Amino acid sequence: MTDPPGDLKLPADMPEDIRAIALRATPEAASELGLIGEGPDRKRAKAARRALYLLRIRGIEPLAEEVPKPLASPDEKLEPKVETFLGFSIRHGSRFLHICPYGDTGPHTLVELGESGEVLACGGGEMSLIELKERYIAHQRKSGRSATEPRLYAPIAPDYARHLLEDAERRTLAAGRLVPLGFHKALSMLPPPSQSYDRPLIYSYITAEEVAGDALGTKSPDRLLKQYPVLTSWPSAAELAPYVQRISGIATSPLVLTREQQQEQFERILAEAVDAIVTDERRQHLITRLELDALAAWQSKDKELAALLLHHAVAGSRASRASAWPLAVLLIRIDIVMVINDSQSSSRASETGRTKRETEDPGGDQGGIPIIRAR
Fold first, then answer.
1. Confidence (pTM)
2. Which residue has better confidence, 16 or 40?
């Protein structure tokens, strides 16, 4: 008999009889769990599947010949089918891709992708996605924040998930890094892509032409940011410094300038900053991020947000330069205003230290010219 592995940690809420079987840590125990996992009692079946998953990742497989399958109707699936879920972007553009061998009610493997689409981390989660969402909502309530349905993840086809992971591996290797341990095992859970996917999948649901125009002015970048945060890891303080200095100098200049003249100079310097800071590489990364978030929104049945996100991705692709992309201009404008406001008064830092979640007119009632506030 195989001794129970010392690192086998089972959830505290696992039924005692399921726990006792799992702790035997033998192929026979795995076979018993396989039978229970396909039984009619959903709660016990879920616990058994989780325990079986934990045994399998430690190399303990059921005895195939001793795991008879229960009778099922012709349209009932006997084998578990992998499901995959794409996370919305978080923390400056990174996101999680969840691989669930038994659906969102069972344990899962997650791969974290970075802002540039590279593989950052890979690991296993004993908590199901349903439990993850429930805990997130409970934490929001405990913190006194809104407990509305959170944007966490959305289902996508497993073969497209594999396409995304294969692309992420290429990006990682191109950057001179190795993919983390466990990545290829996660990749092996997924079927090969059923098509070439020569363009982002979201364009199969919404065409670029459908979202390109904004004749009614309902797709402005500030409207997007009011609904959806777009945080980036750039620009750095050093990148902003020369432009902040020049903009601040407009207000302190001995020349008497009208508000219109100040606005004109500010917009000219801002355009220079956008073109210098939003490089072609950063621009493409942000476009790809918006396209994936649009896909997650579409799969979450939030078609309005999906169309809004994709509008700004298409605008970024079609802009002749970064300063002709309204979203890029607004993001850099907010960063510049944040630095200027923070430097004016440390006592007002908490009031004026904006993030890109806050999208009120940076100039407030000053006609959009932030340097008016300079003393």
1. 0.72
2. 16
